[in-house]
C-alpha cells in the first residue's frame, strides 16, 4: 500500500506557541474548575403558549470563576469541546439536572422537564448510553422528563452511527430535541432519518418575526412541518409580546425567552414556581 506523506512546513510562529500555551492553560483551568465545583446550572423557564404555564426549563451552564466572576458558556464551551473536557462537563450537567428533577418530583412537580445541551462529541461517545443508564439508576428519575438537546451538527457524522445512537437513547426513554433548528448544516435529514420528538426554532427566525415576512414564512413552514410529523415545537429567544402573539397565532407549542425570564439560578426559579406555575 502506498503511503503518502504530507509535507508540512515547520515554521516557527511565536503566535502559535502563545495560542497553544493559552489553550493548555485554559484546559487546566477548566479541569480545575470542575474539580473545585465552580460550574453552575442556570435555568430558563419554558412555558406553554396561550396559558403561559411553565412546563419545564432549559439548563444553561455558567462558570463561577474565582477571579473572573460569572462566565458565560461562550467563553469556555469551545475550549471544552476541543480538549474533550466537554464530556465531563456534560456528565456533570446531567447529574445536576437529574437531582433537580428528583427534587421537583418529591415536591409534586413531576410533570416538569429539564432540557440539557449535549455537544455532538459527547452525544456520539460510545459510552454515552452507558452513562445515561447509570445516571437513571442512580437518581431514579423519569427519563421522559430529561430532554437532550442536540444540534444539527451531529448529522455531520456517519448517519448510521447517529441513528443507532439515537435509537439506543430513545429506547432508554429520553426525549430528544433539535436545537437551533434551521441554522445548521442539514435540517431536513434529521426529520427524514432520525426519530426526534422536538424542534427548537432558532432565535434568528424569531427576532424579526413581527416585521419580516420571510422570517414569518420560515417559522410558519417549520411549525406546519413539525405538526405533520407529530413533533413538539419550542420557540427560542422570544423577547417581546409581539413575537409571542405571532407565535401563538402560528400554533407554536412552547415559548422560551427573555420575555418570560432570563436564565436564573435554581433558587430563584423555585421561588417563582412556588408563587405561581403561571408566567
Ligand atoms: P443555546 O442552547 O441556543 O441556548 C440559548 C441561549 O440564548 C442562551 O445563552 C440563553 O441565555 C440565550 N437566550 C435565551 N433567551 C433569550 C432571548 O430572549 N434573547 C436573547 N438574545 N438570548 C436569549 P447562553 O446561556 O449564553 O448559552 C449559549 C450557548 O452555550 C447555548 O446556546 C449552548 O449552545 C451552549 N451551552 C450552554 N450550556 C451548555 C451546556 O451545559 N453544555 C453544552 N454543551 N453547551 C451549553
Ligand atoms: Ca417542553
Ligand atoms: Ca439549547
Ligand atoms: Ca438554541
TrEMBL record:
Signal peptide per UniProt: none
EAL domain span: 23-277
Protein name as catalogued: GGDEF and EAL domain-containing protein
UniProt source species: Sporosarcina aquimarina
Phylogenetic lineage: Bacteria, Bacillati, Bacillota, Bacilli, Bacillales
Included range, full protein: 342 to 620 of 630
